[in-house]
Amino acid sequence: MTQTAVTPPSERAVRKATPGGARAPRRSGRRRIALPYLLLLPALLLELLVHLVPMLMGITMSFKELTQFSIRNWSEAPWSALDNYTVAIDFDAPVGQALLKSFFTTCLFTVVSVGLCWFLGTAAAIFLQENFRGRGFLRTLFLVPYALPVYAAVITWAFMFQRDNGLVNHVLHDQLGIGDSPAFWLIGDNSFWALLVVSVWKGWPFAFLTVMAGLQNIPRDMYEAAALDGAGVWKQIRHITLPSLRSVNQVLVLVLFLWTFNDFNTPFVLFGKAAPEAADLISLHIYQSSFQTWNFGTGSAMSVLLLLFLLVVTGVYLLLTTRGRKTSDV
User: Fold this and answer.
1) Would you place residue 327 in the very low, low, confident or very high pLDDT band (cuts 50, 70, 90)?
2) Whole-angstrom Cα distance, residue 286 to residue 109?
3) What integer pLDDT is reported at residue 101 of this predicted model?
4) What is the pLDDT of residues 49-61, one digit of tens each?
C-alpha cells in the first residue's frame, strides 16, 4: 500500500506566501478592475459613432464654404477659414443680430422653464412624502407627461392652442370670459408663453421623480426631532429637506438646463419649420440657418459656438457648486 504524503499546515502557509502563490489573487484583481471597462466598451463605441463623429464633422463643416451648390461633395468644398464665425458673431449685420436675439430669447426661456420645473417638481415630491389615501395614484398621474412620447404630447398641445376650436381658448375665453376675443397662441408674442407651458408640462415630472428619489435618503428621525423642537413644516423644509437635497439639485438643475437650452423637438413640432420671433429658440434658429437658407457653413459655425457656450457654462457651474460643497463641508 502506498501512503499519501500530507503537507503540513506550516508548509502550506509558506507556499501561499511565495510569489507564485500570489499570482492568482493578482490576476483576479486585475480582472475585477478591467471588467467595468469591458462592460462600458459597447456604450463608448456607440457614443463615438452617434455623437463624437458627427460633432467632428460639424466642426469641420464650420470651416468650409458650404452652400446648396457645394453640399453634395462637402468634403471637397473650399475652405473659408473663420469667415463663417465672423458672419455669425457680426452683431451689426442681420445674421448676427438675429442670432443674438435668439440667444437672449433662449436664455430667458431656459431660466423660467428650469425654475418652474424645479419648483413644481420639488413641491410635488415633498407633498407626496406624507402618507395619505390616493398617494400612489397621484404619483403615477404626475409621471404621465414624462412617459408620453414628445411628439404625441406636443401635437396634442398644438391642437389645444388652436385659436378657433382649441381647448385653451374655450376655457379661458368661452368659459371664464378672459379677453375680448380668442387669443392667437401659436403666432405673435403669446407663442413664447405657449412654448413655456408645453416645456414645463413635459419637464417638471423629471424633477419630481429625481427629487422624490432623493427624499428617500433623508432619515425620518430628523423630521421627528425637529417637530419635537417646535419646528414647523416650512422650517423643516428650509433646514432639513433643501440642505439634504443639495447634491441632487445640483445635478438636476444642470440636466434641466442642458435639455431645455438644446430643446429642438418642442418648438419644431409646436410651430413647424419657422417659429415666431417671440419663440425663436437658438436650436430652431440654427436649423433654419442651415436647412432653410442652405448655408450649412454658417449653421455649423453657430452650432460650434453654442457647444462652446454650453461647455463654459457647465464648467463654471460645476466649479462653483463644487467649491460651495467643499465650503459647507468644512
Assistant:
1) low
2) 17
3) 94
4) 888 888 888 888 8
Q: In this structure, what C-alpha cell is assigned to residue 268?
A: 419644431
Rounded distance between C-alpha atoms, residue 28 and residue 314, angstroms: 39
Q: Rounded to whole angstroms, how far apart are CA atoms 166 and 190?
A: 15
| Under 8 Å between Cβ of 172 and 183 | yes
If you ran DSSP here, which 8-state letter would residue 130 be given? Answer: S
Q: Where are the alpha helices (DSSP H) in the chain?
A: 9-17, 23-47, 53-61, 83-88, 94-127, 135-142, 144-147, 150-160, 167-169, 190-215, 220-228, 233-236, 242-244, 246-261, 265-271, 282-287, 296-329
- Interval 224-277: pLDDT, tens: 888 888 888 888 888 888 888 999 999 999 999 999 999 999 999 999 888 899
Interhelix angle 190-215/246-261, nearest 10 degrees: 150
Model confidence pTM above 0.85: no
> What is the three-class DSSP state of 67?
coil
79 φ, ψ to 5°? -75, 140
